[in-house]
Design goal:
alpha+beta; single chain; four-stranded antiparallel β-sheet; 5 helices; 2 domains; 164 residues
Length: 164
Amino acid sequence: MGAVYEDLEGHEGYAVRRLPDGTMTSSWTIETAAFGSYVAACECDWRGGDHAPTVEGYEKALQEWDRRHAQPLVAHAVPDKVKVMVREMKQVLAHLVDGRPAAGLKAVQEVEQWAKAVGRGAPSADSRSHQLIETPHSTCEDLRLRCDCYSCPYSRPEGPVPIP
């Protein structure tokens, strides 16, 4: 078993062995005992760079998968529990609009205002998202994102957006 994130399906990370003939395998057998390097890998077929055929190299391969591949994807993955909550909220609002149109409209407008306030601090969908999968990063500054880190220069000046 490799490294996994709960909200990132289809992206289990692991270190494969690069054999002397250049082929890569995740099998650990007597036939694969002699190998040249570990390579960061993902079940989606993403591959990273080569690392020493040592315990440290194995760990570095997993760290590379996490830093270069998983973390950028996780940054864009909506958690399952949030998806469920949003779906339920839509159903509740639709029911309210059907039964009490004025109250429903007011509630929808409140959600819209809150969403606009939250959206002002988020990066645009086309700003850098297409580059994130292959861009190594370690800080908010590297990504040029707005966040709520206390020490981050990209934090929203007004702080986190409150939930009404």
